[in-house]
Write a structure and sequence with these properties.
By secondary structure, the chain is mainly α. The chain is 55% helix and 2% strand.
Length: 186
C-alpha cells in the first residue's frame, strides 16, 4: 500500500481527492473557480465536510459556472439557503456570488484567471519539503500577497489561510509530505 499524507484518512472521497487532485498544478479557469467556491465554504470547517458535499455544491451552483453564478438574484439565493445538501451560510453564499463577478473581471483583465492567480508563485509550483503534517504552515508570504490583492479587488473569503489552502489544492505549492507517493509525482 502506498504511503499518503497523514491528513487523508480512510474516506474514499478524500483518498480520491488526495491521489488525483490535491497539489496537481491546475490552470483551467473553471476548475480554479470550483476550488475558489469550495475553499469559501471550507472557511472555519474541515475539508472533509466540503468534499462530502462537493457534488451537492456542483448541482446547487450550476456546475461552478461563474457566468451563471454572477447573475444570481434573490430567488437563486433563497433556493441556495434552503438547500440542505450544501453548507447554508448566508455570508458564504453571498461571497460566492460576489466572487463570481470578481472572477469574471479578473478573467477579462488578465485574459485568464490562471494567469492572474499563478503570478503569486511566479507561474510555477513552489516545491516544499515537509516531512510531517505539523510542519505545514497555515499561510505564507505568497498567500498573504494573494489575499491582499484579491481583497483589494473585492473578493470575499480570501484571507491568507484560505488563499494558502487554495494554493495547495491547485498545485501552486506542493505540500505533499516527502514520504507521500504523490510528492514526487506532482
Amino acid at each position: 500500500m502506498e504511503k499518503r499524507c497523514s491528513w487523508v484518512g480512510s474516506n474514499p472521497l478524500m483518498i480520491n481527492y488526495h491521489d488525483n487532485e490535491w497539489g496537481k498544478p491546475e490552470h483551467n479557469d473553471r476548475k480554479l473557480f470550483e476550488y475558489l467556491v469550495l475553499d469559501t465554504f471550507q472557511a472555519g470547517l474541515s475539508w472533509q465536510i466540503v468534499i462530502n458535499k462537493r457534488e451537492n455544491f456542483r448541482k446547487a451552483f450550476d456546475n461552478f459556472d461563474p457566468v451563471k453564478i454572477s447573475k444570481y438574484n434573490e430567488k437563486n439565493f433563497e433556493k441556495l439557503i434552503n438547500n440542505s445538501g450544501i453548507i447554508r451560510n448566508k455570508l458564504k453564499i453571498k461571497g460566492v456570488i460576489v466572487n463570481a463577478k470578481k472572477f469574471l473581471e479578473v478573467q477579462k483583465e488578465f485574459k485568464s484567471f490562471s494567469k492572474y492567480i499563478w503570478q503569486f508563485t511566479n507561474h510555477k509550483t513552489i516545491k516544499n519539503k515537509f516531512k510531517r503534517l505539523n510542519e505545514l504552515p497555515a499561510k505564507t508570504k505568497e498567500a498573504e500577497r494573494m489575499s491582499k490583492d484579491m481583497k483589494k479587488r473585492g473578493f470575499k473569503f480570501v484571507g491568507p489561510t484560505i488563499c494558502y489552502a487554495f494554493m495547495q489544492a491547485v498545485g501552486m505549492v506542493n505540500d505533499h509530505t516527502t514520504n507521500c507517493f504523490r510528492y514526487k509525482e506532482v
